[in-house]
Every structure is written in structure tokens, then in C-alpha cells.
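#lab-general

N.A. 3:47 PM
ok so I finally got the sequence cleaned up, no stray characters, all 85 residues accounted for. can someone with queue access submit it? mine expired

B.Y. 3:52 PM
send it over

N.A. 3:53 PM
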Amino acid sequence: MNKSAKRVNIVSVKLVKETSVLYKKRTIRSPQDAYELLKEFLEDKDREHFIVVTLDTKNQPVSINVCHIGSLNASIVSPREVVRP
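B.Y. 4:20 PM
back already:
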């Protein structure tokens, strides 16, 4: 092995299921429905969270993705982070 060579790690970022929530209404048809889905998830947070909720073709939530956790009153997110999930 050449002494000037360096081993470089190959890494990637993957989505990992952390937990789940039970959503009784099943579909999201209004901002109020989205609020009902996320209120328990966000009620104890002390910082801004930018969240993407993915829906299937029947407007049923599939996942909740926290794209970014910001500061006390701001969260700056790039478009690629929103589209990724």
C-alpha cells in the first residue's frame, strides 16, 4: 500500500423511521387538519421547525419529515431539503 494514499470514508444521509403518530381523521383536507396532525408533535418544541408532511394520492399522511430546526424565531431552508423526501 502506498504511504501517500489516504483512505476516505463513503457516507450518505438516509431517512430513518424514528417513531410514528396515530392520526384518527386519516385525510388532510384543510389547514386545521394539518394542525391537528402536528400539534402534539410540535407543542413542546422551543425552536422553529420546518416540517414537510408527505401525502399519498388520497391526501392521507405518509410521513412527517423535519427538514430543518432553526433558531428561536427563524428557520432557513434550501429548496432541495424540501423536495428530497
